[in-house]
Amino acid sequence: MGLTTEEIESLRRIGAVVAATIEEMRRHLEPGITTGELDDIGRAVLNEHGAQSAPELVYDFPGATCISVNERAAHGIPGELEVQPGDLVNIDVSAELDGFFADSGASFGVDPVDGDKQKLLDSTKEALEKAMSMARHGRPVKMVGRVVEGLAQDRGFTVIRNLGGHGIGRKLHQKPSFIPHFYDRREKRRFSEGQVLTLEPFLAMGARRVDELDDGWTLRTENHGLVAQFEHTMIITRGEPIVLTRRSDEEF
């Protein structure tokens, strides 16, 4: 596989820490809590396990985790924003432990969540499942984009094109660089056994791009429409990928 048993176990450990952090933050997600308070919860879990926030470590991000609400797709800065009923909240955690990185994210609805929002959440979660089913040794990378974009179109959603998956492991971002979640005929790469990478489709209500806000971090949909994301870190094998960031509270 190109990875030693020790390397795989190290990746499993940091993957489990990232998963536990998201799960604990989700448990406290309710109306009235601020994104800063959620971030404090995430930081405490990372500290408990001796892990470091990857955004802080690598990019000097102003928070331990990224928390993005509604039309904000990614890199949301934790702060005084209070979560409201009906919000879609994306929690994205990446961290380092013993020289290895893992990255995961999930979008959650704060009750009451209407039918369209729930459909967006369910569809995005399913898109990640389908993407992971394509991620096997020897298969074309572009098949990920084909299944994700096909599902999005069938459900009436769009795929954010300037956000994608990436290699990870000894660095937060490494080869393979940008893995598209839309179908790109020019994409010629194939997955290889032993690759460590993330898949993280963003489905949106009409938007195909995100733009950076004046804070220099937060990415918002071009049409200010809602967006959802689900992400896992995995190891490519000749069969199903080894998913390193699966949470115990996940339904799939």
Keywords:
three-stranded antiparallel beta sheet, Creatine Amidinohydrolase, eleven-stranded antiparallel beta sheet, alpha+beta
Coarse structural class: alpha+beta
Envelope shape: globular
CATH fold category name: Creatine Amidinohydrolase
Count of separate DSSP helical elements: 5
Q: What is the CA-atom radius of gyration, in angstroms?
A: 17 Å
Helix content: 25-40%
According to CATH, what is the class? Alpha Beta
Total separate domains: 1
The CATH architecture name reads Alpha-Beta Complex
Characterize the largest beta sheet: strand count, sense, and whether it forms a barrel: 11 strands, antiparallel
**The CATH superfamily title:** Creatinase/methionine aminopeptidase superfamily
Describe the structure.
- It is a single chain.
- The protein has 252 residues and is α+β, with helices and mostly antiparallel strands.
- The chain has one domain (5-243): Creatine Amidinohydrolase.
- The chain is 31% helix and 25% strand.
- It contains five helices and 14 strands.
- It has helices spanning 5-27, 35-48, 54-59, 115-134, 142-155, and strands spanning 52-53, 66-69, 72-74, 88-97, 100-109, 158-159, 165-167, 174-179, 196-199, 202-204, 210-212, 219-221, 227-235, 242-243.
- The strands form two sheets. Strands 1, 2, 4, 5, 6, 7, 8, 9, 10, 13 and 14 form an eleven-stranded antiparallel sheet that branches. Strands 3-12-11 form a three-stranded antiparallel sheet, with no helix packed on it.
- Strand 13 and strand 14 (242-243) form a beta hairpin.
- Helix 1 packs antiparallel against helix 2 and helix 4 (115-134) packs antiparallel against helix 5 (142-155).
- The longest helix is centred in the first third of the chain and has 23 residues, at 5-27.
